[in-house]
């Protein structure tokens, strides 16, 4: 928890992390579009082949982790800007973190369970 608190108090690190993670998310989207555009036939079997490739599962998982960390940081920034009452702000941040954790776990199960 100390590392997270230290990270959230350093604006430069936040800014750099957001830019790098946003770039990684955009690159993921471009790679995904290129892969789909490069498919001979887009059907169920081609989707299964794409999502069953270990490299794609790993790449998707890493991008999902970045998305969730980015959402926690963005939620904290929104809460700090617009929710001034401390108890409400803490509750809001708890909901954002819980939602992001749920999204991460559910996404990883989808990627790796099949």
Question: What labels describe this entry?
Answer:
elongated, 114 residues, 88% helix, single chain
Distance between the termini: 33 Å
Number of strands: 0
* Percent in strands: under 5%
Class computed from helices, strands and strand pairing: mainly alpha
CATH homology group: Fumarate reductase/succinate dehydrogenase, transmembrane subunit
In short:
Helix content is 88%, strand content 0%.
Task: Describe the protein in words.
The protein is an all-alpha fold and 114 residues long. It has five helices and no strands. The chain is 88% helix and 0% strand. Helix 2 (11-37) packs across helix 4 and helix 4 runs antiparallel to helix 5. The longest helix has 29 residues, at 54-82.
Draw up the topology in text.
Blueprint: H1 2-8, H2 11-37, H3 44-52, H4 54-82, H5 86-113
């Amino acid at each position: 928890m100390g590392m997270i608190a230290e990270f959230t108090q350093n604006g430069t690190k936040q800014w750099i992390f957001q830019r790098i993670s946003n770039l990684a998310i955009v690159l993921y989207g471009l790679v995904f579009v290129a892969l789909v555009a490069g498919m001979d036939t887009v059907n169920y079997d081609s989707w299964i082949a794409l999502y069953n490739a270990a490299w794609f599962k790993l790449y998707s998982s890493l991008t999902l982790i970045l998305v969730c960390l980015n959402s926690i940081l963005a939620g904290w920034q929104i809460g700090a800007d617009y929710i001034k009452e401390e108890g409400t702000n803490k509750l809001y941040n708890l909901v954002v973190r819980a939602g992001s954790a749920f999204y991460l776990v559910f996404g990883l199960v989808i990627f790796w369970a099949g």
